[in-house]
């Protein structure tokens, strides 16, 4: 390969004199108070590029411009993204900008022409290594015919950049010219971390939980006008330009097809490309920076990479401003859609571990990508051993076992109805965990266990650092019952699987979606229907008012619980759905919603609630009776929540969950089947006696709580006219109202809204 000629350039970016402080907002730190991005000799005029945050009106109102001691009048004021330009008469002499008692002297710079006529790569470089830069340049020379590179090297004052190493690395890339532009000024966004931190990784797990330090030298570019400075000062005469990241690999053209540069040169506008992030499974040499060749995986549900673009600078858009991800407001050439790129995320974020870039459970090894890396970089990435997933076995409906695992505390009066209903629809196995019960809940399950109807365990959470529900699920994974189960679901005693097909049984549901491996049931929140006093009657019979099917708020409105096959596709049980997807099973998972429609891929790995694209109730609904009567709610609040043990169930929770806008009486058709199974359970004398004891304990606790002023005040408020009316208006409220509670709704609002159903 021929040698690469290296040209060094440092733009005239000047800090503001101390006397100019009043020209900047007080929130802008000293490092970001720039006075000039450059003064460039354009031949017939000299152009000053003024930076962001410098107030044009205040600056120009008092500005005096001198050259050689004589005052000079500005020719024109122009626009610059984030700043402005000021054209001055032509001349080589220095220009003195005087404002107030302070001044700044600038010398016009003649544009650099090292890249003239070249097909040029351009990239901003923060901490990429010489080797990474060379691999990127060599790849695009070979695949796209790149001839030159413009590297904008962003330096921190404490940073020592080895320019010689970069120049040496570029010598065997095939490029004929490289311009190394050193930026030694703070040009990054305020209050932002460096752009190579996990904060900007689109799929970085846990990134919102980390703390980041501001870095004005390496944060995402804030001085957008710098693109125009570069265009006029170092990119003048460039034949065509590709602006991308060192981490990006543009898709090679097919044999005989134009390169990206050729497309740009023939386009009447510009090209804008969308990319796909790619990831390493692990680095081949962990002690060294990642290379492009380390990347052999894609995320099946990840986001895309930010856009990159290509243009012929002297073409039809010669007067349109360059920006980081686009060119002005021009529409890109439709040919752009036929070309893409891959962003090597460990090169983009070199200080982050592979685990910080994307969840391992989302990464799918790609043999074609691995071959691509081997072909272009001479070494394949390290990939895990690929497992060929077994076909999904059919389940014999005559021996099918369906398991519920649940956690309870003080739910004594409501156990038998829930158990009877789910036995009636076809649940075969119940694994129950209890803790700290005072109303006989644990005693009831001991009795039921003695009859072979359930398996009861003390919740083991005290021996762990887990919340009760999570501890129970962890323990449940190890049980013989779970090992025998064909299907299982984690659900609570206030949730009822309401099946709408056939005879309302699980057999009918499974028959409607015979190939499903997971079925998500979306909550429908049932309110208290105006019921105040506790009665020993079926919950499903008393409470028929509920939320509309289409209601996105409160956040809990579309929560899901999931029936799933025990096939090993996921690593562990979860409250709302199984967790820890094993990526090799992506293609054999068949996850449907409550209408039998495919769930989006974004749900395969994470997510606990339905969306407008994934909700469905045609086949099955999960009726969620989270409140019951007003009096029973007092006991629920006193008991506390089983999973979210640190969250109070007070007025705001009642307000969020009390949905009474519509009536759904379909569950009344299931009362005969519930009653028949209930009668079987209650026929056991010891179980009947314990049920009655739990009912009395519940009534006693209600009476005790209502003697307390705080609970009586809560009772009065939740049974009042205002909250009853608001319970039918949830469709009118947004997220913030549900977070703030009913006090955030103006008094009288409930009476001013027309067409409130009173029935």
How would you describe this protein?
The chain has 759 residues and is of the alpha/beta class. Among the domains are: 7-106, Immunoglobulin-like; 402-706, no CATH class. The chain is built from 23 helices and 34 strands. Strands 1, 12, 13, 14, 15, 16, 17, 18, 19, 20 and 21 form an 11-stranded mixed sheet that branches. β30 and β31 (579-581) form a beta hairpin. The longest helix has 22 residues, at 685-706. The protein is elongated. The N and C termini lie far apart (84 Å). Mean pLDDT is 94; it is low at 641-648.
Radius of gyration: 34 Å
Count of DSSP E strands?
A: 34
Structural class: alpha/beta
Number of helices: 23
**Which strand-content bin applies to the residues?**
15-25%
Largest sheet: 11 strands, mixed
In quaternary terms, these chains amount to single chain
Distance, first to last CA = 84 Å
Shape: elongated
| Fraction of helical residues | 25-40%
Mean pLDDT: 94
Unreliable sequence segments? 641-648
């Amino acid at each position: 390969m021929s040698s690469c000629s290296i040209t060094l350039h440092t733009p005239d970016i000047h800090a503001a004199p101390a006397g100019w402080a009043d020209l900047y907002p007080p929130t802008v730190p000293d490092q970001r108070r720039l006075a000039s991005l450059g003064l460039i000799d354009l031949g017939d005029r000299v152009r000053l590029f003024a930076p962001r945050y410098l107030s044009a009106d205040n600056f120009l109102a008092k500005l005096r411009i001198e050259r050689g001691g004589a005052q000079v009048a500005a020719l024109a004021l122009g626009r610059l993204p984030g700043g402005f330009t000021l054209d001055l008469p032509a001349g080589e002499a220095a220009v003195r900008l005087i404002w107030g008692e302070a001044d700044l002297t600038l010398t016009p710079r003649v544009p650099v022409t090292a890249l003239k006529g070249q097909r040029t790569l351009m990239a901003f470089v923060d901490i990429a290594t010489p080797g990474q830069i060379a691999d990127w340049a060599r790849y695009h020379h070979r695949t796209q015919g790149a001839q030159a590179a413009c590297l904008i090297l962003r330096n921190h004052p404490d940073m020592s950049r080895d320019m010689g190493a970069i120049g040496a690395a570029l010598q065997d890339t095939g490029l004929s010219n490289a311009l190394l532009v050193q930026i030694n000024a703070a040009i990054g966004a305020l209050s932002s971390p460096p752009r190579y931190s996990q904060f900007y990784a689109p799929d970085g797990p846990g990134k919102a939980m980390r703390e980041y330090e501001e870095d004005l030298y390496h944060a995402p570019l804030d001085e957008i006008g710098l693109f125009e400075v570069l265009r006029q000062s170092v990119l003048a005469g460039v034949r065509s330009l590709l602006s991308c990241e060192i981490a990006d690999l543009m898709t090679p053209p097919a044999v005989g097809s134009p390169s990206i540069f050729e497309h740009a040169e023939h386009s009447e506008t510009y090209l804008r490309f969308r990319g796909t992030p790619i990831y390493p499974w692990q680095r081949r040499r962990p002690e060294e920076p990642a290379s492009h060749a380390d990347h052999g995986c894609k995320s099946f549900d990840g986001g895309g990479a930010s856009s990159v673009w290509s243009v012929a600078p002297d073409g039809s858009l010669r007067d349109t401003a360059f920006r980081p991800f686009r060119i002005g407001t021009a529409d890109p050439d439709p040919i752009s859609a036929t070309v893409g790129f891959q962003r090597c995320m460990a090169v983009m974020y070199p200080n982050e571990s592979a685990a910080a870039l994307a969840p391992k459970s989302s990464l799918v090894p790609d043999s074609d990508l691995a071959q691509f890396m081997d072909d272009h970089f001479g070494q394949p990435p390290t990939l895990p051993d690929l497992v060929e997933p077994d076909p999904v076995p059919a389940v014999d409906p005559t021996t099918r076992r369906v398991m519920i695992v649940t956690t309870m505390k003080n739910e004594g009066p409501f156990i038998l109805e829930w158990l009877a209903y789910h036995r009636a629809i076809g649940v075969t196995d119940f694994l129950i965990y209890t803790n700290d019960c005072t109303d006989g809940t644990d005693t009831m399950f001991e009795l039921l266990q003695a009859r072979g109807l359930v398996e009861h365990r003390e919740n083991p959470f005290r021996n762990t650092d887990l919340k009760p529900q999570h501890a129970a699920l962890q323990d449940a994974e190890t049980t013989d019952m779970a090992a025998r189960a064909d299907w299982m679901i984690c659900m609570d005693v206030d949730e009822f699987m309401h099946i709408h097909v056939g005879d309302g049984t699980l057999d009918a549901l499974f028959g409607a979606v015979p190939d499903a491996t997971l079925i998500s049931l979306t909550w429908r929140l049932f309110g208290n229907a105006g019921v105040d006093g506790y009665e020993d009657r079926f919950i499903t019979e008393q409470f028929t008012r509920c939320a509309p099917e289409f209601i996105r708020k409160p956040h809990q409105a579309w929560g899901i619980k999931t029936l799933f096959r025990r096939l090993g596709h996921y690593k562990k049980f979860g409250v709302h759905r199984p967790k820890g997807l094993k990526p090799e099973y992506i293609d054999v998972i068949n996850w449907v919603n409550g209408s039998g429609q495919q769930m989006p891929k974004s749900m395969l790995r994470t997510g606990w609630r339905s969306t407008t694209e994934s909700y469905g109730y045609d086949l099955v609904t999960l009726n969620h009776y989270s409140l019951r009567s007003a009096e029973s709610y007092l006991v629920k609040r006193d008991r506390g929540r089983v999973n979210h043990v640190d969250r109070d169930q007070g007025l705001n929770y009642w307000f969020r969950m009390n949905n009474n806008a519509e009536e759904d009486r379909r569950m009344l058709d299931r009362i005969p089947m519930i009653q028949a199974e209930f009668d079987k359970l209650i026929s056991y004398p010891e179980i009947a006696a314990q049920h009655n004891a739990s009912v009395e304990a519940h009534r006693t606790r209600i009476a005790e709580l209502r003697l307390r002023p705080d609970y009586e005040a809560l009772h009065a408020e939740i049974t009042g006219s205002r909250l009853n009316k608001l319970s039918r208006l949830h469709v009118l409220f947004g997220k913030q109202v549900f977070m703030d509670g009913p006090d955030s709704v103006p008094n009288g609002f409930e009476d001013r809204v027309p067409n409130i159903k009173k029935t």
